[in-house]
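Quick one - inputs below.
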Amino acid sequence: MVDTDTPAAYVAHAVRSYWLIALLWIRAAMAYPVSFWTMLVGGVLITFLDFVAIWLMFTHVDTYGGFTLREIALLYGLTSIAFRVADMLVGSVEKIGQKVRSGDLDAMMTKPVPVLVQLCADRFELRRLGQIAQGLAVFAWAAPIVEWTPQRLLVLVVALVSGVVIYFCVFVIFSTIQFWTTDASEFANAFTYGGNTIMQYPMTIFPREVVRSLTYLLPLAFVNWYPCLFLLGRTDPFGSPDWFRFASPLAALMLVVVTTLVWRQGLRRYRSTGS
Amino acid sequence: MSGPLHPQISLYAAIATRSFRRYSTYTAATLAGIFTNSVFGIILSFAYLALWEQNPSAGGYEADQAVTFVWIGQALLMTVALWSGGSTDDLAERIRTGDIAVDLYRPVSVLGWYLAADLGRGLYHFTTRGVAPAIVGALLFGLVTPSPAGAAGFLVSVVLAVVVSFAVRFLFAASAFWLLDATGPRVLLSVLATFFSGLTLPLNLFPDGLRQVALALPFASYIQTPADIWLGRHTGLDMIAAIGLQVLWAVVLLATCALVLRAATRKVVVQGG
Amino acid sequence: MSLIEVRDLSREFTIRKRAGAFRRTSVVKHAVHDLSFDIEAGEMVGYIGPNGAGKSTTIKMLTGILGPSGGSALVAGLEPSRQRRELARRIGVVFGQRTSLWWDLPLRDSYELLRRIYRIPDQTFRRNLEDHVALLDLGDLMDTPVRQLSLGQRMRGDIAAALLHDPEILYLDEPTIGLDVVSKGRLREFLRALNHERGTTLMLTTHDLQDIEALCDRVIVIDHGTAVFDGPLPSLRANGDASRTLVVDLVDEASPIAIEGARVVKVEGPRQWLAFPAGASAAPLVAQVAAAYDVADLSIHEPDIEDVIRKLYAR
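Output:
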């Protein structure tokens, strides 16, 4: 029927399967239109109020960590867009533990589509577009403070793509832990949602060790901090090398390698315990 | 239910105990949750320290009070089930599946049953996911400690926080009687609760007008009121007034729950589920 | 080469147990231990055993969900744990208590998705859909959301879903659990036809021994991770001390019948039950009884398969 796949055909089939499954879930969600739209609006509101809190902080101060409100909006917008896009595309991977307990993971393993693809596409939630829209809105509001040049535009686009990849990896890495402890799904939240939260603030408010960790251990600073320094034409108060500002794809690539190893190890663990 | 008070109380105590035990079986989940609460506590502490460094008396708090506020927020977040997840989730699920009809015909108050279960859950979350991150916060940042009266008032206020939050969640979950699917209202509720409880920012930092409205809403009972009692911002008569407002909300909301439940019972009887 | 070849297949699990506040001890459990069997193309095999005997562990190893810790398994010439996705295109799996269909969508949409992820050629898909939908009586349900289907309808929907890509092997895990008598009957009929007409190999685990009686030419009984019986159904009956029963209705009440080669196990008025070895012929017994007593009626009862299996487990 189907010959052994070439790598290209394999990836193509995986991507197509992802969208087909996602599309089904979108249609399933549309079976409850009221719920869909309330959730979408709720998503916009919840993230909107999240930014309002930062804005309210600025009724008590003029600058925060040496940054103006719009500069922070730029940081906030960039991490939010990347995080929310990743969350929409692969956020379901958080449910590994649940899928293990219910046996759904076994069923996924008997289908000719990579398990990770099925997990990520499962319960695809189009309503998360609302949260992405909020990130875009905040970013659009901040954008005029940047003196846009072709280079800066390029850095922005590259940073956005890398940011999505970085958050994708964070979701997968920390969800994979559930292969060892199936009911510890909340652990991942500290790094996914926690990561997005910490990146909303300028790094200047954190101790040097925190910033180092976010550069070398869990390279979230490459999602928005380093690229934004370039967009704003600022020097890094922590004195990092200039090339860090363009290193987002490198950080993303390295994280992809780590993620692949961790995921394989997790799946191997599952296949030797079955629980 | 005109029976003697005694068996009623022991019944509710049994329900609460069972609920406490049910949550205590998920050790890994609890540890993961404590870790996550601590991480968020640390992030917010730095965020607040930077704010108070610029404006040392913002909202009338000192910097160490502001940091303490953060950790109280993290401690109460799960205790009051701010983002749902208590016995009211079971309620929503039972309404969806129709199993609720069984509850409605039981010779026990449905409201009392679910409240007892939620209090049992709250006690578990307070002693684990409340206390543990607070210790982390105290070790890392040093927290403000309350006076004995403040501590006592805080505990009373926390119990009321759970009751108020329960009643609000109950009402939103009960919307499933009419809407079939209560996930939409649930999201809306977590939006409101997150913002108006003081979790993202203490309500006292809100601008005039919005602040007064926010402080009067039931969500203020979740975190803002207990935190202010702990921090000594409400003392004496002021503390009694703050707790009084919580009691008022608890009574009004529970009464509304009872009315809604009566309407729902009629609906279930008429439509057969 | 057989379609399924299992050689000395083993699977151990290390179970950690709490032995105090901080101490933990670990116990090694042999879920499957040195299991060997072959299944030829076109067979219908019942795979039975008590809970925890290793049934689902075996199925998981044969589908590639679990890797073996010893021995080997070869399914359709593939090594399941290494070639899981390739194997997936050649097998169908139905888990009785779970559905792989999309809850809020009509059956048609789930099938359409499966067509694409299994890359089923259009012609094959159309033919299978027509055949199975007709035989499983799903025609009127194609546009009904899965959540509105009854358990029996959903099970039929799931089986049709597992067959769309023409699998050579169909694994069924408790396919009739929770179904009413009529649905069970229909399902068995369908599976029999599938096997006869398409030659699909069937391997099913079940607690319902009527499934076995209705479907399987061969039974593998597993207990504590090893096969305690592997053979055709009649010889499972003949196995061990299983016995057939001759029920004699006498004209008048009498003292227990004394005849060589049989013993009375029960007397109820003029009716008496005589047990005799399953391997022995009934003819000489009947002749002896008829010669010695006034007989009103006679009947022979086959041994109850449940009894037989219970005896096997007890050993």
